[in-house]
Amino acid sequence: MYHPRELYPSLGTGYRLGHPQPGADSSFPPALAEGYRYPDLDTSKLDCFLSGIEAAPHTLSAPPPLPLLPSLGPETAPPPPEALHSLPGVSLSLENQELWKEFSAVGTEMIITKAGRRMFPACRVSVTGLDPEARYLFLLDVVPVDGARYRWQGQHWEPSGKAEPRLPDRVYIHPDSPATGAHWMRQPVSFHRVKLTNSTLDPHGHLILHSMHKYQPRIHLVRATQLCSQHWGGVASFRFPETTFISVTAYQNPRITQLKIAANPFAKGFRENGRNCKRERDARVKRKLRGPEPVATEACGSGDTPGGPCDSTLGGDIRDSDPEQAPAPREAASAPAPPCGGPSAEAYLLHPAAFHGAPSHLPARNPSFPEAPDPGRPAPYSAAFLELQPGPGGSAYQAAPSVTSFAPHFIQGGPFPLPYPGPGGYLDMGSKPMY
DNA sequence: TCTTCTCGCACTTTTGAAAAGT
DNA sequence: AACTTTTCAAAAGTGCGAGAAG
Fold first, then answer.
1. pTM over 0.90
2. Domain A91-250, what fold?
């Protein structure tokens, strides 16, 4: 399994985040950053917060690259999930892990389009160990795995040069957020509505990725009474190595295409026994060339295939009833959190990685925060004091004991006027490039 | 010339409003 | 009258393949 020491060797044995390194964030033009801002946000309010962040005296150290995940291929076995958190007893498991592993074994590819494309498989997790009465937010973001661009070489993916400059992070907020622990634990939490785009000026707030790059989705759990709550109970961040994927604008590996068609109900029409199977499409084209089609055609195999209908050897029927397609109870969605001005959950929403020792594009404490009113309290949050907790292996990650070094930040008061994109929305974190 | 991206197509599933039933 | 279930059309989500762009 991954240990934080292996994850972020540059952080040292205590995984502490250091002072900024010269030029760490200098490659991203501020003017360009404007275009990445969340489109529907009240940017003046956001700017108030972001400007404070960017003026912070401390930024994180140079980007600790994510650990090198096993190269995509059938021979690799993904390591167990890894998590960083301060929510004791909380564990997360990947519900559709088998499906993910099936894709991972071939080398998962995710289509990205200008308009935004959903992920398939989607991240669907079940969570345990939450306080049934407390409220939590569920977030998802996607981060680059390494600094390379990839190309398909006919049989496998291989690095082909340096990665494009990292785009500002956006976070997808689960539509049920905030909801009680009981709600989250009642049924698996699905992120099937997340959309990926390659449009750097995307107006819809989808997660922006570069094509031909390797990415890793991460799921963040934040304890807060509401998005703008001033009372925090901690955060937890999880990632599952088998969910790593390469973003593409068109599938490169035909085996991935087969898997997607077999597993995704929306692609049912492309299965061998579907009306849109290649044989049927070819037949339609021929008929078109010959003249008008007198009657509707039957699915392939019904008449011209000996032994009955064509049968997909990949067996997609079981997956058709994939519960991730079913809408989850919307306990909290009907009562969206109102915009408000407290620090806290937004801080995590804006820069979740800062709480987990992730890359340096994330800022340190907002200097406009007032100091802790109670001298007995630990020092206000600063990512520079973040310590990461290793956890045991297994498919579900057990949360480590509470990390006290940053939790106090969340009970700080201060100006923090943040717009709320609403349940199911995306929040632009306005981050700086990783490379 | 090669690789990558965009767009329109035909198909399936999902969604939500209206109608029907209890 | 209020609530639940069913129906159905529109919207959204798929991969394919041709052609454009770099």
1. no
2. Immunoglobulin-like (2.60.40)
